[in-house]
Design brief:
alpha+beta; 2 helices; 2 strands
Length: 88
Amino acid sequence: MSVVTYEGRVEQGQIRLKDAVALPEGAQVYVVVTPLADTALDPEPEQIAADVRAGLADFAAGRVFKIETANDLARLAAEGDSPKTPQT
């Protein structure tokens, strides 16, 4: 699997990439959300890379989670490294 990463931010509920990127229609994408802390507004590249690696490792291990609402995302964030309800 080939992976390319792009940096962006959520603005008014939509993901805005830092650079102009044209993705092909139907492209499969994965969104990795870095933790928000007082100092995490501009996370260091090393932290972003670590978060992406962790997300890809979860995906490769079959730990994929269906996120449909903000409550789903909040639950996964609260569960940390041991989410209890993977989607198959």
